[in-house]
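Task 17 of the worksheet. Students: predict the tertiary structure of the chain below and write it out as structure tokens. Keep your answer in the requested format; marks are given for formatting as well as content.
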Amino acid sequence: MSVVDRHFAPDIPVTEIIAQGSPSLNQQIYLRLRLALSLNLRRQILIAVSDDPALRSQLATQLETDLAIELNPHGSRFTSFALNLDNPDVLDQLQPYLNPESGVPNFQITGIDRLTRQPVHIQRIFLESLTTIAQQLGNLEFNLVLWVTRPWCRAIQQSVPEFWQWRTGLFEFEGDPFGQDQIQSQPAPNGSSNGYRKFKLDSELADFVVASVMQTVNLDDQTALVNVLETNNPDSEPLRILQQIEDLHQARSSAASLAVPYRQLGDWYRDRLDPVRPAAEHLTIVIRAYEQALKLVDMKSDEVPDLLNDIANLYWIKARSGSGSVVTNLEKALKAYQFAVDRTNPEHQPQTYAMIQNNLGSVYSDLALHQSPEENLQSAIDAYRASIQARPFETDPARYAATQNNLGTAYWNMAQHRAPVQHLQAAVEAYNEALRYYTPEHEPLYYAMLQNNLGTAYWNLSRCDQAVQELAMAEDFLHLAIGAYRVALIYRTLEAAPLAYAATQNNLGTAYWHLANQQTTHYDDRSIHLLCAIDAYQEALSAVQYLEAASTPHAPPLSFDLSATHHHIGLAYYQTAIDARTELSLSDRTKFLHHALRHQVRAAQGWENQPEFQKSAVGQFSQIIRGIYERDGIQGQTQALSQIPPAFLGQVMREL
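Model answer:
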């Protein structure tokens, strides 16, 4: 059974910031790194990741100090190097210090982040040297720590996979996103007080921007950037904003003045993010730019909640795009949203407050997929309800309806963990409330989505013993589910929404199959329901073939288990074929049995990594073949056995 549609419509376009790791977490990561080196093992490749230059320098210095003491009893040494930017060949730089008679040498390389401003051919020397290390690692008796930023970590992973696979440890440190430690109140240069605060220019942000523009305009040398600026190339706009920021820093302008171009820089990149696959490099730039803006604006300003909401939304985008740790990015999004909620008055700013609570609920819902589902889903429900209370239907019906749909889905998910009847009833109520706005004339696809969600909630109620005992018969809930699915399919057509069409047809087939197998279903209706299930499943499979033929590299995945579809349609074909009351000819019954076998084989092959499910499909093989033998003799049985994959043939022969 496919999961309920997860429709999430952010209230506004989004933006993001660099998140804060707790000091205790960084300390734990540092202790793991130090322990890995103090064990005096050989051929360790350790990658330490931090986007905070000050933190990176502090940790590298501390590591050198600690290990100089800890490694001395073993006769080993620990040496730090700043990468030679004229010739960034790591192995060449280490070669003079590789003395096999002086214990296991340990090296750490810093300054790799400065490669960002170097020409491409210089960067290539560094990456090629890592390939050489990977190829010769069996003969190299040393340990190596590379201090890198996240962009360089991704570059190594993607460009030098043979080196990346030899890594023995990855240590990701976090900086302080909301900290104010870089900002100090000072008098203005003229001695007056104009709100000036000493603020250090984010040099890494400048590096990211320069590298981004060079890549966009296809340049290998930074000196050519001057020509790009002089030609007023629109792609060089980030450079102009960056120059403005540097000028304001040099003029010691006020914090409020500095915040404006940082926000403009983030907006420029945010507006150009690919909505399907946003570039990780561009997300990083937006993060850094908004981080700087947040540090500069007055925290009592009305601008702060919107900025924090943008920051959190971008973390949510980052989590869904697969850039970095999903859980870490979701937790950063939660932190920013919670900061925003704390700084928003629901009475004076109801729309902003409702928007942030809705977005907060969506992140809690996503986090529930990875950890503490009941706790996070309850937090999502609370956030959605707070949003609805602040923004009722009469105020903003479209966003009210979107939040009601999100609330219904959160209730549906909670029903999978506890109190199913209570939460499924609440889901039905929320979906019906959303239908106050989503009508087939106004929003046909959203209307169909809600009908599909309603159908799934009713189907789940049919599976709850408590609901069947206290509310209605399972047959009644299944009829409600089928009705909702069929309404959805009026608007969810193959042409308009092929992926959604396939999911709803699959849901419809499952509802019919369960209805056919209810004890209360009349035997005359049973065969009709099975044939309807077969038709719906066939439509779902045809839609999948259509999607595969027209697939794109980034096509979204199916929301249902295709192997389960094959298994259920196989059961429906078999049950129809052996039902004496079904009006089928002998030849049609045999065809149905062959169809049943073909689909069960597909199910078994698809469930290769799910042995319990595969067992269910394989268990049908011998029953179906017996049915074929009874109707078509040894010739039919031989033909059926030829369809069985060799891996399953022995088991089938034993059962026969």
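Marker's comment: The radius of gyration is 31 Å. Strands lie at 45-49, 77-82, 105-110, 143-148, 169-172, 184-185, 197-198.
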